[in-house]
Write a structure and sequence with these properties.
The protein has 19 helices and no strands. It is an all-alpha fold. Helix 6 packs across helix 17.
């Protein structure tokens, strides 16, 4: 297993990097809004959202900027993401979301099942012709590292760390697995974003009824039109106060709750609930609750002044910082481990599509159910918003559900992977 190579980037100043990312986002949005020339044809094939995280990844891969050496992702995920969740949930139609029915949960659980069975199947498939790839000894046994990927793909970063502690994967193996996790997950996310642009065709193939989803989107659109106004400076400041004020409360609550949970970590470990000792878990949960609570107040009217647009803008900055963490060239390191990850993801996708075909679930539920598992709270709302900003809260709610089942599912998967490893 090769050591990960670290190259000093050409640009190290985060202020400069942020300016580059914002310029890229502005270019993408400007060109995607053009109604003539070559751009409309280009964006019919390549979704704008996909470029928002792919172009920064190219800059990272070329060594121009560095996601690893930058603090921008931390800032975006801790400050902008919770603000985005508050503002996107502010105008949520809870009755409409509930009308979406049980298919969202079913597809989420199907995604979880696909990951649980996909890991062992991937090990068996690869060991059939290259057993050395899935071997190892002691802390370097590959199944131990794959257990951390299972934790990440079902629950998130906290679950991933918990699985490392439970199964004792070496730091070297864990580092390689993080690379596999990030790149394979982002490749799949790219396919989901492309699929979002052709969801009607996929729904026809699945024979799915997407009328409830269309109804929620249309209702939110009509509500926005009904309260629409040109925002003045006061409106903008109030929207910022709602978003960042909610973030402040979420951080305050997280800082208060997390140490309490840390003190009960042994009890949480007994019931496989270690993710509840994660500060990020409580940050997402509290921000979501605040947004949902405010949707029942008069502050909801600020959707007319563009609250969800501010939330979407914050989300796109997060997308760019996620992209700059991905090194597209790293796929050539540890190709064997990437092969396991790709086979694993294919099994996950097959399970999702089979279940979707059986219950006639719209592609929206396939995409968000998958990303709520694989991507978690940072990227599930991104995929959901690719269908419509009004649907972003569905991704958030499912991702929070993923935290709850993450460690349970990952442990079950790890035990099977250990049993089938050569």
């Amino acid at each position: 297993m090769e050591e990960v190579k670290h190259i000093e980037p050409f640009i190290t100043n985060d202020a400069t990097v942020l300016g580059i990312l914002m310029a890229l986002l502005a270019f993408i949005f400007y060109t995607s809004s053009k109604s003539d020339g070559v751009w409309p044809k280009f964006y019919k094939v390549i979704p704008a959202l996909l470029l928002c995280y792919f172009l920064p990844s190219v800059l990272n891969s070329l060594g121009i900027i560095s996601g690893e050496g930058s603090n921008l992702y931390f800032v975006a995920s801790r400050y902008l993401l919770p603000s985005s969740l508050v503002l996107l949930c502010l105008s949520i139609d809870m009755k409409g979301i509930l009308k979406l029915g049980p298919k969202a949960i079913i597809m989420f659980l199907a995604g979880t099942l696909g990951i649980i069975v996909g890991g062992p199947i991937a090990i068996l498939a690869v060991s059939a012709f290259a057993p050395e790839i899935v071997g190892g000894a002691g802390p370097d046994e590959v199944w131990r590292g794959l257990a951390t990927v299972a934790g990440s793909w079902i629950g998130g970063g906290a679950n991933q760390t918990a699985m490392k502690e439970i199964y004792g994967a070496s730091d070297k193996l864990f580092s390689a697995m993080i690379t596999v996790d990030v790149i394979v997950a982002n490749i799949w996310m790219a396919f989901l974003l492309i699929g979002a642009g052709m969801s009607e065709k996929v729904d026809k193939f699945l024979k799915a009824d997407s009328s409830a989803i269309t109804e929620v989107k249309e209702k939110m659109h009509q509500y926005s039109l009904g309260v629409a106004k040109i925002p003045n400076l006061t409106d903008i400041m109030i929207i910022c106060a709602i978003g960042f004020g909610g973030t402040a409360i979420a951080h305050f609550g997280s800082d208060y709750i997390t140490p309490i949970m840390e003190n009960h970590k042994e009890w949480l470990s007994t019931y496989r609930l270690t993710s509840m000792a994660s500060g990020f878990f409580w940050l997402v949960v509290i921000a979501t609750i605040i947004g949902l609570a405010l949707s029942f107040t008069r502050l909801k009217k600020y959707e007319g002044a563009g609250a969800s647009k501010f939330g979407s803008a914050f989300l796109y900055v997060l997308v760019a910082t996620i992209g700059m963490k991905m090194d597209v060239l790293a796929i050539f390191d540890n190709l064997g481990l990437f092969l396991i990850g790709i086979v694993w993801m294919i099994v996950h996708v097959i399970v999702l599509l089979v279940v979707a075909k059986i219950i006639k679930a719209p592609f929206f539920f396939v995409a968000v159910g998958s990303q709520a598992n694989v991507g978690g709270a940072a990227s599930a709302p991104i995929v959901a918003s690719a269908f419509s900003p009004a649907l972003a809260p569905v991704g958030v709610l499912l991702a929070v559900f993923g935290y709850a089942v993450g460690t349970f599912g990952a442990i079950f998967c790890a035990q099977i992977m250990q049993a089938v490893s050569p």
